Amino acid sequence: QLQVVESGGGLVQPGGSLRLSCAASGFTFDYHNIGWFRQAPGKAREGVSCISTSDGSTLYADSVKGRFTISRDNAENTVYLHMNSLKPEDTAVYYCAAREAIQIMCNLRQRSYAYWGQGTQVTVSS
Q1: Rounded distance between C-alpha atoms, residue 97 and residue 110, angstroms
Q2: How many CA atoms lie within 13 A of 121 on its CB side?
């Protein structure tokens, strides 16, 4: 069974940092683009960042540029989202998603992704 599982969420103060992890089960990330999405209370789910399998290129939403960094460790079959300078507006459930991709650049369109995790809660509050 193909699954992705997020971890690393929690409560952090404004200005703090967290690292989210996305691990694959039942398949390897080698030929998959990975995206991070988030959904805040009362809002639609939005794309945060993604990383392409072809060349490791990355994409970020404007709201997180310069603060978040996505990276992948194929040996560990894990993708990370490093979140720095967190703001209260970053509070959301964060989801990891994967799609099989060969020579296809990643994007932040939810419909592009076939496999989704259950999400991990990130709360930024003092």
Answers
A1: 8
A2: 5
Which residues share a beta bridge with 24?
4
| CA 32/CA 34 separation, integer angstroms | 6
Q: Is the pLDDT of residue 81 over 90?
A: yes
**Residue 67 clears pLDDT 90, i.e. is over it:** yes
d(CA 41, CA 39): 7
In the block, tokens 């200005």 appear at 15
Backbone angles phi, psi at 108, to 5 degrees: -110, 30
Contact 16, 86 (CB under 8 A): yes
What rounded mean pLDDT belongs to the chain? 94
